[in-house]
Automatic annotation (TrEMBL):
This is Diaminobutyrate--2-oxoglutarate transaminase. Its EC number is 2.6.1.76. Keywords: Aminotransferase, Pyridoxal phosphate, Transferase. One of its GO terms (biological process) is ectoine biosynthetic process. It comes from Comamonas serinivorans. GO terms for molecular function: diaminobutyrate-2-oxoglutarate transaminase activity; diaminobutyrate-pyruvate transaminase activity; pyridoxal phosphate binding. InterPro entries: Aminotrans_3, Aminotrans_3_PPA_site, Dat, Ectoine_EctB, PyrdxlP-dep_Trfase, PyrdxlP-dep_Trfase_major, PyrdxlP-dep_Trfase_small. PANTHER family: DIAMINOBUTYRATE--2-OXOGLUTARATE AMINOTRANSFERASE, DIAMINOBUTYRATE--2-OXOGLUTARATE TRANSAMINASE. NCBIfam families: dat (TIGR00709), ectoine_ectB (TIGR02407), PRK09264.1 (NF006733). Its cofactor is pyridoxal 5'-phosphate. It holds the Pfam family Aminotran_3. Signal peptide: none annotated. It comes from the Bacteria. Belongs to the class-III pyridoxal-phosphate-dependent aminotransferase family.
Length: 422
């Protein structure tokens, strides 16, 4: 069947080149192709499937809604499904954390949520410039690309990407340099050539950028700087929110409250498109229809998102993520030591990465893992980081099985390298 895609689908397709199988079904942590071969999934739709494939709780809610002819599409008209999601989100996510946000439903993609956040920050402040960070990734539409660091993706725009200034992310200039000192100097210096920004946008863990982790102290200081200078702080939690780092929001560990938060990917919990912008009430200065989207009322996604929020009725999932994160970090560190490889393990929760000193090793390991039945991607500007995104609900035995395959894939990649060098 692969020839159908190769003959008729655009050359823009990407992940299928790394994972050349035709998938037919999936359950939990596993995917099955049309030949009946099973693959353990450490990719999870780039962070879309935090609760695994086809979780029963969500599937049952969705099927019941569809079978009673629940309304599917409502734009931003009121619907029972949306109302139930809003009520549950307030009850299980915002209120327990002492957060007060208005909820905006843009078009159902992460990049649309980012576009809305940037537009609103500019509207509220009357300023144009937005500060982003080195190695950031915020989406593929023009506004999101302007605050994305990857030069390959930026070049695809075909037009100048303006009104964005890049600052060094935490650790970008080495452990001895506090990058926020530089940021503060730029803000304070009228000769810096940098306009006073409307907003700062960041990922607390840069997922596509190479699993780069901002420390809690760095985040707290950034929040203080933005508050002092009247700058809107936008946290892009599209990939690392919804429990990926442990807490529902990735910024919880730092005890900060952003002005705007963007969510998508695992928000619906089922792979159905859904995005959300959380806005401090005093910043909700939109006029009706000023930002909209045809599919912002996708009711089946509201249904599964509401069901997914039941995972957050207690701390059981968060505690499980912390335990599994320790298992992953310990095993990855041991692999580097046992194979005598130079590299760095980093991450939070169940987003973990290994940056190898040999920049090409991550891709070779990913390929060997796929051949052995594990789907795992790479990240970083040169694909130099092996990136682990298992589902949060994966069983520990399955997690250990996947780590065993990585260990074997690493050995195979090393052996292949030696044979090529001989």
């Amino acid at each position: 069947m692969q020839h159908i895609f190769e003959e008729h689908e655009s050359e823009v397709r990407g992940y299928c080149r790394s994972f050349p199988a035709v998938f037919a079904s999936a359950k939990g942590a596993w995917m099955t192709d049309t030949e009946g071969r099973r693959y353990l999934d450490f990719f999870c739709g780039a962070g879309v499937l935090n609760y695994g494939h086809n979780p029963d709780r969500l599937k049952q809610a969705l099927m019941a809604y569809l079978m009673r002819d629940g309304i599917t599409h409502t734009l931003d008209m009121y619907s029972e499904a949306k109302g139930q999601f809003i009520e549950r989100f307030q009850q299980l996510v915002l209120q327990p954390r002492g957060l007060s946000y208005k909820l905006q439903f843009p078009g159902p993609t992460g990049t649309n949520a980012v576009e809305a956040a940037l537009k609103l920050a500019r509207k509220v402040t009357g300023r144009e410039q937005v500060v982003s960070f080195t190695n950031a990734f915020h989406g593929m539409s023009l506004g999101s690309l302007a605050v994305t660091g990857n030069s390959f993706k930026r070049a695809g725009a075909g037009v100048p990407l303006n009104h964005a200034t890049f600052m060094p992310f935490d650790g970008y200039m080495g452990s001895d340099t506090d990058t926020l000192d530089y940021f503060e100097s730029v803000l304070a210096d009228n000769g810096s050539g940098t306009q006073h920004p409307a907003a700062v946008i960041l990922e607390t863990v840069q997922a596509e950028g190479g699993v780069n982790v901002a420390s809690a102290d760095w985040l707290r200081r950034l929040r203080e700087i933005t508050q002092r200078h009247g700058i809107v702080l936008i946290v892009d939690d599209i990939q690392v929110g919804c429990g990926r780092t442990g807490g529902f929001f990735s910024f919880e560990e730092a005890s900060i409250v952003p002005d705007i938060v963007t969510l998508s990917k695992s928000l619906s919990g089922y792979g159905l498109p859904l995005a959300l912008v959380l806005i401090k009430p005093e910043l909700d200065q939109w006029t009706p229809g000023e930002h909209n989207g045809t599919f912002r009322g996708h009711c089946p996604a509201f249904v599964t998102a509401t069901a997914a929020l039941e995972y957050w009725r207690d701390t059981q999932l968060q505690e499980a993520v912390a335990s599994k994160a320790t298992l992953v970090q310990t095993r990855l560190q041991r692999m580097l030591q046992q194979h005598g490889i130079k590299g760095t393990v980093r991450g939070r929760g169940l987003i973990q990465g290994v940056e190898f000193a040999d920049a090409g090793l991550a891709q070779r390991v990913s390929k060997a893992c796929f051949e052995a039945g594990l789907v795992i991607e790479t990240a970083g500007i040169n694909d130099q980081v092996l990136k682990l995104l298992p589902s949060l609900t994966i069983r520990e035995g399955e997690l250990a099985q996947g780590l065993d395959i990585i260990d074997q894939g690493l050995q195979q990649a090393l052996d292949d390298g030696l044979r090529r060098a001989a």
